Amino acid sequence: MPGHIHPTAIVDPSAKIADNVEIGPFTIVHANVELASDCKIGAYCELGVETSLGDGSPLIIEKHSLIRSHSVFYESSHFGEKLVTGHRVVVRENTKSGKGFQIGSFCDIQGDCVIGNHVRFQTNIAIGKLSHIGNFVWMFPHVALVNDPHPPSNILFGPKIEDFAVIATMSTIFPGVTVGRGALIAAHSALKSDAEPDMVYMGSPARRICSTDKILLRDGSGHPAYPWTTHFHRGYPEDVVKSWNSKIQK
């Protein structure tokens, strides 16, 4: 079924727009764009911005995605189904993400990045080029992944964030650093060396504090707060939550 394109929107005839797509007022959709079915694009967005830094491939947004107002996506990127953004998001070229990616308002992804499934960014997060982010990663407001060891230079090393890691608010992950699976980087930390899996790092420079299972939920239960998958399931698909629960039972 046809969707709805606002009369003030500018959509290039060469763009590939699937069924039931909504495009809001004053949005621009360039030629090198593919929008799958049931996508909703808000007002004043720009999709498929041309750039010499891309590889010529289209910007592809898979089905059931929601891009809110004033967001800008460059060409040569691919986003899995159920992408959701806040407002005023910028994503540069050559970015690939899995399904269920949530990008908070005012986030900036500087391209050439790989992002896994069900990753969640809150607001005002800066992701440097060549960053590699695994599955089920959380990043909280004002986190920065930086890539230049001696700015400004052309020598870039993107950080690597492994599955289920949590980066708390206002933390900085330095060039080439790996955050291990399930690690927690505490608020206001500056991580300059690799973080081991399932460990807490805190401070500037960040140092290993303890294992994540030493942190208890502040609900009186006495249960460990990590891994967070044992108690936090909001917004995740039923099959994913079922797999988490089955591991707990074992």
What topology emerges from the helices and strands here?
Elements: E1 4-5, E2 10-11, E3 16-17, E4 22-23, E5 28-29, E6 33-35, E7 40-41, E8 46-49, E9 59-61, E10 66-67, E11 72-74, E12 78-79, E13 84-85, E14 90-91, E15 96-97, E16 102-103, E17 108-109, E18 114-115, E19 120-121, E20 126-127, E21 132-133, E22 138-139, E23 144-145, E24 160-161, E25 166-167, E26 172-173, E27 178-179, E28 184-185, E29 190-191, E30 199-203, E31 206-211, H1 238-249
Kindly describe this structure.
The chain has one helix spanning 238-249; strands spanning 4-5, 10-11, 16-17, 22-23, 28-29, 33-35, 40-41, 46-49, 59-61, 66-67, 72-74, 78-79, 84-85, 90-91, 96-97, 102-103, 108-109, 114-115, 120-121, 126-127, 132-133, 138-139, 144-145, 160-161, 166-167, 172-173, 178-179, 184-185, 190-191, 199-203, 206-211. It has 250 residues and is mainly beta. The protein has a single domain (4-249), classed as Hexapeptide repeat proteins (UDP N-Acetylglucosamine Acyltransferase, domain 1). The chain starts with a strand and ends with a helix.
Quick structural overview:
With 250 residues, the chain is mainly beta. The protein has one helix and 31 strands. The protein has one helix at 238-249; strands at 4-5, 10-11, 16-17, 22-23, 28-29, 33-35, 40-41, 46-49, 59-61, 66-67, 72-74, 78-79, 84-85, 90-91, 96-97, 102-103, 108-109, 114-115, 120-121, 126-127, 132-133, 138-139, 144-145, 160-161, 166-167, 172-173, 178-179, 184-185, 190-191, 199-203, 206-211.
CATH class annotation: Mainly Beta
Number of strands: 31
Major β-sheet strand ordering: 2-5-8-11-14-17-20-23-26-29
Supply the number of helical segments.
Answer: 1
User: What fraction strand?
Assistant: 25-35%
Helix content: under 10%
* Cα shape: globular
Instruction: Kindly provide the radius of gyration, computed on alpha-carbon positions and rounded to a whole number of angstroms.
Output: 19 Å
Tell me the name of the CATH homologous superfamily.
Hexapeptide repeat proteins
Q: What about the largest sheet? A: 10 strands, parallel
**CATH T-level fold name:** UDP N-Acetylglucosamine Acyltransferase, domain 1
Q: Could you report the average pLDDT, rounded to the nearest whole number?
A: 96
Q: Terminal Cα separation, in Å? A: 46 Å
Structurally, the number of domains stands at 1
Give the helix/strand class: mainly beta
Low-confidence stretches: none
CATH architecture: 3 Solenoid
